[in-house]
Each structure stands twice: as structure tokens, then as C-alpha cells.
């Protein structure tokens, strides 16, 4: 996201998402639709080229098929791909486009594949088994790749049985997207560490040490609310909390949650900081600088039935999709895929704090590049 700093628009990374990263299936369609719109209004060929290609669906499909091939060669199995979804899935069209892309990405080497959607709630515990070689089966299907589009929110685990199920889904040889290690690396607390030069330097690859300053500069500043994590000292925490209490409009208070609609702003931020003062609950939150992006006018299509599209002041946030696949043996890692896979733009009205699309706060958008 761009933020206004000393009269300039400076790019800052808000966070990275290794879980609940949606719309890779829809963004190519959004780009195509927007290109048709600008063409209808007389856009030149050069202007059409200012809308970058987005192939997130086919790139994700290729990565999943490569992961499936890796699994089958490793265990000499015949596994396929499972999308783990909610029983009341609201984002099914995005997921169906990814499924379709997998079938369209098949090559002469990979002639067929099964993609099965499985609900986390549908008595799944009774339908899964793990054999002596730690291969995962759901009904009659051997699972090579388990793609999580669920299990990232506390309300996804209403019982002890759901936690037992989650454990069984992890402790087997299927390739997970993401695995539990990456889910933990995705937490706000870990991401906050990248705002600390010493913590950052201790975590990046030696070959990337020269880029530490660039990484730190590109990230939005964040602070933990407990010195126990070794990221911020108590003095730093006291100082930043005092600043947030005095000027809450300059900060965002974020819990360890995904999926949108969980952050605290303005007066709610102050009230929450007071409520958590000197309590263990504060350990689960981080403070982040609130970015001040430039605004433009745009027309958003409302989701409410019968609502009329209106031109409003908006801000936009640009995200980049990536695919990553590696083999880990002990402390050694062999990276097989690490590539840019497309982009996502979320646009919301200026007066709206949150930017979640599924939560109804923002809309999918397309970038238009200018010099």
C-alpha cells in the first residue's frame, strides 16, 4: 500500500498472508472484465497494455500439480488434490476457478488428476485414515496435496474433535498448503519481528543479509505489547502505547486473527488498550502504524440487493501472489518453486477502516500502470 510520507507516496508492505489468501481464481477474470470496460470506452492499445496480465489461477494450478508429482514420486503413491473448505463456503466461485485451472494445466506428462472438495465439518474425522506409511486417505482418495481454505479462525474449531481432526490432517505425508510451520510464521507476532533490525537479521538467509535494510524500510512499523518475545523492550512498548493512546488515528491494533474484521481503530483501539493493560491478553496483540494512502475516485459495485453503484473516494491496496514449494531435511532446505504468481488489488471507501473483501468492506480491483 502507498502511504503519504513527507509529501511523497511511499510503498509499504502491510503484511504477508500464508493462510486465507483468496481470489487467485477470480483476479484473472476481474482483469479481463476491466480490460473490456476500458476498451468499450475507447482505450488505446497502449492503454490496454497498462493493465498487467494476471495468471494467478494457472500459476497456482501448476504449483499444485508439481507438488502432487513430488508427493507421488516420493512415496510411490497415486495421490490427488483436496481442497479443504467450509461447510457453508461463501467463496466457492474463486475456488472453482482454481479447480478448473488445474484441469486445464494438465500436460502430456500428467494426463489426469482428481480434485475433491472436502468440508471440514461433514463428519470428516470418521472418513479419514492414515496408513502404516503415514499416507493420508479420505474415503477412497489418497491425498497428495491438501489445500487449506479453512481452519484459520477460532470458530472453525468448535470442539475437541475438530482439534483432533486438524492434528490428523497435519501429521501425515501429504503436502500441505500451507503446512503448520508456515501457518505459525504467518502470525502477526512473527511478522512484527521483521520491523526489528536485530530480529530480522537473525532470521533471513545469509545470502539475503545485504537486503535487510531494504526489507525493514519496506515494511509498515509494528510493535509487540510484551517484551517476552524478544522483539521490543518494555521501554519501547510503553512509549508506543502512550503514543497510540494520545493519537489513535495513527495506529491499528491487530490480534492474531485472519479473515478480516478483527482490527481495532480510533476510540475502540484506546478502549482495548486500556482493557488489556497489565493482562496476559496483551501478548496476543500487536500495534502497527496506520498508513495514510492517497485517494482517488472510483465506482464500487455494492453487494446489497437493489443498491445503486455510486462514485466515492477510495483507497487501494496492492498484493502479490506467490507460490513456494520446498523439501526440508533436518536444517537443510531445497527450494523447488519460489515465484511471483499474480496480483490482487483491494479497493475500499476512504471512510471504511477494514479492507476485507469476504467481510464486505472492500472490492476486487485491477491496477492501471502509469509513468
TrEMBL record:
Residues 81-185 form the Glutathione synthase substrate-binding domain. It catalyses: gamma-L-glutamyl-L-cysteine + glycine + ATP = glutathione + ADP + phosphate + H(+). Pathway: Sulfur metabolism; glutathione biosynthesis; glutathione from L-cysteine and L-glutamate: step 2/2. One of its GO terms (molecular function) is ATP binding. Its EC number is 6.3.2.3. Mg(2+) binds at residue 258. It holds the Pfam family GSH_synth_ATP. Substrate binds at residues 95, 346. It is an enzyme of class 6 (ligase). Keywords: ATP-binding, Glutathione biosynthesis, Ligase, Magnesium, Metal-binding, Nucleotide-binding. Belongs to the eukaryotic GSH synthase family. This is Glutathione synthetase.
Amino acid at each position: 500500500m502507498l502511504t503519504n510520507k513527507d509529501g511523497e507516496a511511499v510503498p509499504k508492505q502491510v503484511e504477508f498472508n500464508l493462510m486465507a489468501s483468496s481470489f487467485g481464481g477470480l483476479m484473472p477474470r476481474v482483469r479481463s472484465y476491466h480490460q473490456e470496460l476500458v476498451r468499450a470506452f475507447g482505450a488505446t492499445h497502449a492503454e490496454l497494455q497498462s493493465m498487467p496480465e494476471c495468471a494467478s489461477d494457472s500459476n497456482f494450478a501448476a504449483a499444485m500439480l508439481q507438488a502432487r508429482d513430488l508427493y507421488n514420486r516420493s512415496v510411490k503413491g497415486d495421490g490427488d488434490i483436496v481442497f479443504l473448505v467450509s461447510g457453508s463456503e461463501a467463496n466457492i466461485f474463486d475456488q472453482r476457478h482454481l479447480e478448473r485451472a488445474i484441469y486445464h494445466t494438465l500436460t502430456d506428462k500428467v494426463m489426469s488428476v482428481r480434485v475433491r472438495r472436502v468440508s471440514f465439518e461433514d463428519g470428516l474425522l470418521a472418513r479419514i485414515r492414515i496408513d502404516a506409511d503415514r499416507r493420508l486417505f479420505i474415503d477412497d482418495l489418497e491425498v497428495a496435496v491438501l489445500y487449506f481454505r479453512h481452519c484459520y479462525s477460532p470458530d472453525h474449531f468448535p470442539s475437541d474433535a475438530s482439534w483432533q481432526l486438524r492434528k490428523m490432517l497435519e501429521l501425515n505425508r501429504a503436502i500441505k498448503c500451507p503446512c503448520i510451520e508456515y501457518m505459525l510464521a504467518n502470525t502477526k507476532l512473527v511478522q512484527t519481528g521483521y520491523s526489528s533490525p536485530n530480529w530480522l537479521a537473525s532470521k533471513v538467509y545469509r545470502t539475503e543479509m545485504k537486503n535487510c535494510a531494504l526489507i525493514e524500510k519496506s515494511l509498515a512499523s509494528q510493535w509487540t505489547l510484551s517484551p517476552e518475545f524478544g522483539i521490543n523492550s518494555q521501554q519501547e512498548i510503553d512509549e508506543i502505547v502512550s503514543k497510540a493512546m494520545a493519537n489513535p488515528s495513527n495506529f491499528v491494533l491487530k490480534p492474531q486473527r485472519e479473515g478480516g474484521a478483527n482490527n481495532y481503530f480510533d476510540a475502540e483501539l484506546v478502549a482495548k488498550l486500556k482493557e488489556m493493560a497489565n493482562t496476559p491478553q496483551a501478548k496476543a496483540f500487536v500495534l502497527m502504524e496506520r498508513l495514510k494512502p492517497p485517494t482517488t475516485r472510483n465506482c464500487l459495485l455494492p453487494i446489497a440487493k437493489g443498491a445503486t453503484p455510486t462514485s466515492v473516494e477510495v483507497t487501494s491496496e496492492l498484493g502479490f501472489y506467490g507460490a513456494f514449494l520446498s523439501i526440508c531435511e533436518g536444517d537443510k532446505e531445497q527450494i523447488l518453486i519460489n515465484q511471483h504468481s499474480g496480483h490482487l488489488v483491494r479497493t475500499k471507501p476512504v471512510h471504511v477502516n477494514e479492507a476485507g473483501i469476504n467481510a464486505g468492506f472492500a472490492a476486487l480491483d485491477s491496477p492501471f500502470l502509469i509513468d
